Every structure is written in structure tokens, then in C-alpha cells.
Here is the input.
Amino acid sequence: MSIKRVRKAILTGGGRATRLRPITSTINKHLIPLANKPMIFHAIQKVVDAGVEEIFINVNPGDTELQKYIGDGGHWGVKITYFEQEGGPQGVAHVVKQAEKFIGKDPFIFFLSDNVVLGDLKPMVAEFMENKYDCMLALSSVPNPKAFGVPVFNEKNELVDVLEKPENPPNSFAVTGIYIYGPEVFFKAFDNIEKSSRGEYEISSVHSHFLKNNYKVGYKEITGWWKDTGQPHDLILANKLLLDELKEEEFSVQGQIEEGAKISGKVHIGAGTTVRNDVQIIGPVTIGENCVLENCIIGPYATIGSGCIIKNAQVSNSIILKNCTLDCPLKFTESIVGEKAEVIKKRTDECRRMIIGEQTVIEV
Here is the structure.
């Protein structure tokens, strides 16, 4: 079957992201802002740039948060459809199986939306089509391959298997969360795998089935940068690199800047934001709409959400979600502050009053 173009993609939007609590206690992980855009927006843009016209996003049962933020795809000139993962979480491969009725007999990209990639997916798609692969995997060298699916190569450097989270990885490569599949092959393979010992349908089991049954599986190493944002420090690093990656035209100053404020480097300031004369901003930095900045230093590598009030503080290499108040003489770095959080100076030094949620981290 000749494939002229990959027009469909499945993106992940479900899961509970327990490793990112308490931030994800009140917000879907895929909506956490990186460079002031929800994480999933970056994934959508990647597949759209690769030629995709229809996107299918899985959501948790009853969840409507993603639909409200993302919409029907008109912003990107594509069609977006949402589907619930029935029967509860049963693994990444099960997400794809649930979208079979949407994919039909077409080739498709499967993109785990919490993966951040710098670079273009078009060369990977082109190689997939040119070589008429049944499956194409993206690989990346990582320091901890045992946390991922790991490819296995023979003495001829041919891909022969994929192991899911092996205790003793045979190499330092990880199979990243970016896959391309040919017509129907994924669903035929899924029907021939079983749940793993942890009770999930593993995507690595599908790939292993391909390789053991003479399917044509290609791979391409991501030589730029890839990150699975499963931990808070991963989000901080992804935000930093995405800020570096933003084009000049994505930085603009739209707010009210008082004379005396010092702004240097690439800085975006949203409409309605007020920057007082005693503020210093060091790019790259992106600041949302309707913020108030006073007697503070922002940046480098800070993402500030809309509606924030920041006074008397220093914020660098951090993600501050919307409607937060930081009003205290503290330096925030490598920090993530959740929506509507307040960090304020107490009037006396006798003690500190705190209301701290589950899995909160505070350094004093």
C-alpha cells in the first residue's frame, strides 16, 4: 500500500501524573505551561508541522478541561476529536487501541504529549514513507534507560527487540514517546499481546511483536533534544530550552512599562501587565497578561502566568502558574508555583503560618 502522507495523529491527554503532585492535583499535567503555552500545545504544533490534519486526544473519563483549553483544532487549522479511555488506565498501548475507530486503515503518528522535542518531525515522517516501514521509532540516548523502553540490537546493529523498563539495559538508548505506524499494523499486533506483570498493555510489547514477526521496523535517533517531563526538574529544564527555542517574533512588549524599568534580552510581556520603575527583567522571559511587577527581578528563564502579582522577590529558571502572588524578599529558582498560590511575608518573625498540600516541597 503506497503511503503519500501521514494525516492522522493520536496524542495523550489522560493520566494522573502523580509524580508531579501537588501541581497536578488541580490541573491536568498536559496543561502545565512551558514557555507560557500549555505543554500539549507544543505536541500539537509538532504533529501539525509534520503534515497531520486530524488529531485524536484521549482524556480521563468525565474530564472536560482539555476540551475547554484546546478546542476543536481551529487555532491550528486542523480537526481535533476527544475520546475517553474506557475501562480505566490499562497502559499506553491501550490508549491507541481505544482510537482504532478513528484511525481506521490510515497510517498515524502516536505522540505522548508529555514529551518535549526540539527539532522537526518531518525528516522522521519522510523516512518512514520512503522506506515503507510498518513502524518507525524515535530513539534518544539517556542516562537512565531502565526507566524506559530500551531497543535491543544484534551484532549487525539491527533492531531485534524492545524491552520495557529492563533492570539491566543492554545500551543507553530509550524509545521516546514518538511513534509512526503504517495502516492497520498496530491493531493487529495489539490483539496478539497480553498485559504485563504490572497489569498494563505495554507499547514495547507491540514493538517486540513487530520485530519477532518480520514487520519492517525503522528507527531514528533524536540528535537534538528530547525530554520526558515526568519529574518537576524535567519541567524546569524543558521550560528553559523552549524559551531558548522561541523565535524573535514570539517576544513582544504589550503591557505598561514605567520609565526606569530595566529590560534586557528576549522578553514577552502580555497586554494589561504593569511593570513598575524598580523592576529588572532579564530574558529569555515570558510574562502573561494582567500581571503586576514591582521591586523585583525576573529572569532569566522564567515563565510567569497571567494575573500574577510579584513584589520584592527574585524569580529565575522557574514556572509560576497563573493568578499567583509572590510578595516577599525571597529568591525563587528551579521552582514551580501552582495556580492561585500565595507566598507572602509575615508581619512578625515569631513563626510562619503554612497551609501545605500533599507532596509539597518547601526549602526555608
User: Anything to note?
Assistant: The first strand starts at residue 8 and ends at 12. Residues 311 and 327 are 5 Å apart (CA to CA). The chain has two domains: 8-244, 249-344.
